[in-house]
Design goal:
Length: 117
Amino acid sequence: MKKRTTDNVVLLLTSGFLLAAFKMFYLFLDFYNVLDVVVFGITGFIIGGKLAGYRPAFGLLVTLPVVLICLYFVVRLGYASIMEGVGTSFAVSLILIPLATYVGIFIRIKRMARRSV
């Protein structure tokens, strides 16, 4: 890998671990799926400026630690618990977090492209 690619991967994974710690903080709030969308959408918007002409799919590396935590809870709770409502929010987070991050990256890239024209 090139130096720039290595630096970006390390930066994205480090910020992903910080976001995972922040998710553990707001995990006990009732509306944390909404917070997932807001926090990761803003994060995607911020890192979208760094990845504009590069590789926007690298932005999903920031979601990797949080998705692994949610996947751990979903697997440990099992199918029956998720259907009863205990782990439903973790299953929803598996979809919402990468989607919100990529939407934030996409909006930032389109906005930067519009400004450059």
